[in-house]
Write a structure and sequence with these properties.
With about 180 residues, this protein is of the alpha+beta class. The protein contains six helices and four strands.
Length: about 180
């Protein structure tokens, strides 16, 4: 045992304290990283919702003014998709194309400083989904399932029922035996 006026800590005591501090720091950093990822996902989802609402309003305006057909021709130039639902991308620094034309006047520069993807039903002229990432320079199809990419899917309007056949088609049906008799 040491004398009464000996002061200080042993090397073992210092190492235990340092180990406890290192463990606490590691847990704090891991928690902060998780919080940052969650905050980014929430921000991206809010951005996707804002873009969705803006794009739907823009499409409604194009329909009301009779300009939807010309905008859809621009969509055809921007994509190789031949399907009913097309996927359009707007990269962070891109300032041309159908998506840019639809969003440029309604969103702030800060909101447009992101990678954006629109999935559009060209037959019905409405959005299926919007993907948004405020940190990425580009989005591609393989990025759309990333948990940090914000996604917003609205309630798609029901497709209109098929039009009834013209009256002339009804005249050419075969008469039933009761009608013929």
């Amino acid at each position: 045992m040491k004398g009464l006026d000996a002061r200080g800590f042993t090397l073992a005591e210092l190492m235990v304290v340092l180990a406890i501090l290192a463990l606490g720091s590691a847990l704090t950093v891991a928690g902060l990283n998780g919080y940052q990822k969650h905050a980014l996902a929430v921000q991206n989802r809010a951005g996707a919702q804002r873009v969705y609402q803006t794009a739907e309003a823009g499409l409604a305006e194009l329909k009301a003014t009779g300009q939807l057909a010309s905008w859809l021709r621009l969509v055809e130039q921007d994509t190789a998709d031949e399907a009913e639902t097309v996927t359009l991308f707007l990269d962070r620094q891109q300032r041309t194309g159908a998506v840019w034309q639809l969003l440029q006047n309604a969103l702030t520069e800060e909101e447009l400083d992101a990678a954006i993807c629109l999935q559009l039903d060209t037959d019905a002229g409405h959005l299926v989904a919007v993907y948004y990432d405020a940190t990425a320079d580009t989005l591609r199809r393989e990025d759309l399932n990333n948990a940090e990419v914000g996604c917003w899917m609205g309630d798609a309007p029901a497709k209109p029922a098929a039009a009834p056949p013209p009256e002339e088609a009804l005249l050419w049906r075969q008469a039933t035996p009761e009608e013929a008799g």
